[in-house]
Amino acid sequence: MSDLSQAIRAALLTGDKRGKVKATRALVRAWRRGELESGWSVAMPDRPRWPGGLQVLPPAQMPKRGRGGSERGRIALWHSLAHIEFVAIDLALDMVGRFGAQMDEAFTADFLAVAADEAMHFSLIDRHLATMGASYGDLPVHDGLWQSAEATAHDVFARLAVVPMVLEARGLDVTPAMIARVEAQGDSRGGKILARILDDEIAHVSAGARHFAALCAARGMEPEIYWKKLVRAHFSGTIRPPFNDSARVRCGLSRDAYTALA
After folding, report:
1. Which InterPro entries does the record cross-reference, listed alphabetically (predicted)?
2. 3-state secondary structure the chain
3. What pLDDT, in 10s, does the model give residues 99-137?
4. Cis (ω within 30 of 0) for the bond into 242?
5. Entry pTM
6. Is the CA virtual torsion 175, 178, 183, 189 positive or negative?
7. Scanning 3, 52, 87, 141, which has its CA 20 to 30 A from the CA of 16?
């Protein structure tokens, strides 16, 4: 029987988009059934593999999406969302594979569930792209999300502070307006996909905030103060309003903390 770290490493190093989704779903299912040992025998790769031929650019060099209501603009929007969800699979898997050995089983269960959700989100979006005659990999993407993983690879506190509590929390802020926009364009299916993703992201951010708070409590640290310190040190982007305060507070995020960094 292989252990969980081996299965996670194999999924991270699967570049084919359908292969990564399949490997992620399979390892989560196997772990839940007790078919994988909760072992940590191998290290995680510095970078996951992505589809061959995918053009990865620095964020500043990404082309403009085009007008939002145009077909080109719609494809660019959904392609960018596909990339976010594809990288989110790797972020969740790496969270478990890199830090699971020092955390409890609830941490492993929570972030494997996140990985399974992200795989489902990616599949929904890629299928939606197909209805527009497009596919993930057709357009350039940027490396900003994985750069945050690299910047926090040394510390589970930093990873939790930045990935679920900043990056995923940003999704809570922008998705409601995105739902309204795509529905106004007559894309009811797209609106339903985004609504499902928003519901799931609330659980993901909640998991990050919960485990961050538990770690802080175990080490006698004040969560709000330490979170702000970590974000200032390890997140190169900006935290800006408008904020979805109701969703953020529901997830256990402190309004005083995130508005202080805006």
Report:
1. DUF455, Ferritin-like_SF, UCP012318
2. CCEHHHHHHHHHCCCCHHHHHHHHHHHHHHHHCCCCECCCCCCCCCCCCCCCCCCEECHHHCCCCCCCCCHHHHHHHHHHHHHHHHHHHHHHHHHHHHHHHHCCHHHHHHHHHHHHHHHHHHHHHHHHHHCCCCCCCCCCEECHHHHHHHHCCCCHHHHHHHHHHHHHHHHHHHHHHHHHHHHHCCCHHHHHHHHHHHHHHHHHHHHHHHHHHHHHHHCCCCHHHHHHHHHHHHCCCCCCCCCCHHHHHHCCCCHHHHHHCC
3. 999 999 999 999 999 999 999 999 999 999 999 999 999
4. yes
5. 0.96
6. negative
7. 3
pLDDT digits (tens, 9 = 90+) for 158-186: 999 999 999 999 999 999 999 999 999 99
Other Cβ atoms less than 10 A from the Cβ of 106: the count is: 12
Strand partners, 77: none
